[in-house]
Amino acid sequence: MRCSLVVLVVVAVAALPAAAQADTPRVKATCVGVSTCNGWFTTDVHLRWDIEGGQPVAGCKEIWITTDPGPAGLFQDCTAEDPSSPAHDTGYAKITIFRDTVPPSVTDVVAERPPDHDGWYTHPVSFTPKGSDATSGVLACNSATYVGPDSADARIVATCTDKAGLSASRAFPLRYDATPPDPGSANLKTGDKVVRLSWPAGTTATVMRTPGTEGSSSAVLYQGPGSGFTDKKVRNGRKYRYVLTLTDPAGNSASRELSAEPDRHLVGPAKRATVSGHPRLTWTPVRGARYYNVQLFRNGTKILSRWPRQASLQLKPKWRFHGRRYRLKPGEYRWYVWPGKGPRAENRYGRMVGKRSFTVASS
Questions:
Q1: In this structure, are strands 105-111 and 125-132 parallel, antiparallel, or unpaired?
Q2: Which CATH number goes with the domain that contains 230?
Q3: Which of 283, 287, 230, 239 minimizes the C-alpha distance to 261?
Q4: Does the reported pTM lie above 0.85?
């Protein structure tokens, strides 16, 4: 009988220390408590370095940046090493920090067109701003449009923004008037061989009359500044048409037509007016009149006659006439006016200025 011998040998192999396979050190910069240092900062910047798996060996400064380093920014880096690794693995990071705390400058605005008239704009106008920024640079300037209100001291506000997000605005002056003058308040008064026109001051006026002078169909009688014009080249009883054109400093114009028929006439009180107290009687001056004769009647009886030198007479509450006392009591009155020629003793009178009635109301 053959016998077999099997020998089982168990060999215990001890694990040899493997070469350190540690990760490369990780280096990361943080700014102002955030994980990124990208972009532009507009406040002080606190820079620090976070290192995992190693130790700093170069750079890696923790600093405060409190001034603007300029358009190129501030370069910083950090090198870390893992001393436990056979190869002394290193990690590296670099950053450039940009800081801008100064807003841009708005240097100018460029209008889309020149002023419409003599330095004035009369329609909406757009402006394109120009700006500068020495650090981050200008990102954009917003255009602005002026549409009113009218003003000789208007302002257009332009705004520019830099790449750091800072904005600045600046006002630029302009003169703007889009509203024509209003000739609606112009006034016309007639008198004895005279027509007087008046209008608001601050404009240039042109007065054209039809018919014109010296047989012309129409003529410009006045052109210039001021607030009125007196036309003495007229005849009583003839109708005249005036075209008044007002032009403001911005070149805006507006016209109005007025008609007149000059003649001597009573002015106030108005026809059949009811008055209280004692009124002033007024009428248009008559050319060449040395004085006037005013007569006042009540119930068909003359109760007053006066000879004022001016074209008005203030009635009094009481007076004497032909030895009798009168007072201005309630009732209806009629009055007449004649112009006096030459010395009063000659009793020469011209054509009657007018006649009119008024009523004194009960108090």
A1: antiparallel
A2: 2.60.40.10
A3: 239
A4: no
